[in-house]
Design brief:
By secondary structure, the protein is of the alpha/beta class. It contains 6 helices and 4 strands, in the order βαβαβαβααα. Strand 3, helix 3 and strand 4 form a beta-alpha-beta unit.
């Protein structure tokens, strides 16, 4: 089993997780951390460290999904990267969460492999109307 922390600007994390839970069912190992303009970055970092620590105490590697590379959520998360234990993927979308929501079992895969598969899955679920409507 792995744990997933969605880290985003404003309240996007909570809304993505709520929507994924609505569609696929809630999962206590899928949590969100949101960052707003008035938040103290150090307090957010401390909260994220504590959340990671809680899951690590349970023996779960942690996959962090951020909204966009280079933003504050991503920058804070990248500083917490730990090979094999804490992996970060930027560009979270709803299909990625739905793929994870029902099953956070690793199936014997390493965290890096799961992150790579999830990244590819997220990319494959981005379309333009022309891709499927133009005949």
């Amino acid at each position: 089993m792995i744990a997933v922390i969605v880290v985003t600007h404003h309240t996007l994390a909570e809304h993505l997780i709520s929507t994924a839970g609505f569609i696929a069912g809630a999962n206590p190992d899928l949590v969100g951390v949101s960052i707003s303009q008035q938040d103290d970055v150090e307090a957010v970092r401390k909260n994220l460290v504590e959340t990671i620590g809680k899951f690590r105490k349970e023996g779960k590697p942690v996959l962090i999904l951020t909204d966009m590379f280079g933003g504050t959520p991503s920058n804070i998360s990248l500083a917490l990267y730990e090979p094999g234990q804490v992996e970060i993927v930027s560009g979270v979308n709803l299909p990625m969460l739905l793929k994870l929501a029902g099953n956070l079992d690793t199936g014997g895969k390493g965290l890096r492999e799961i992150a790579a598969e999830l990244t590819e899955y997220g990319r494959k679920n981005i379309f333009t109307a022309a891709e499927f409507l133009d005949l």
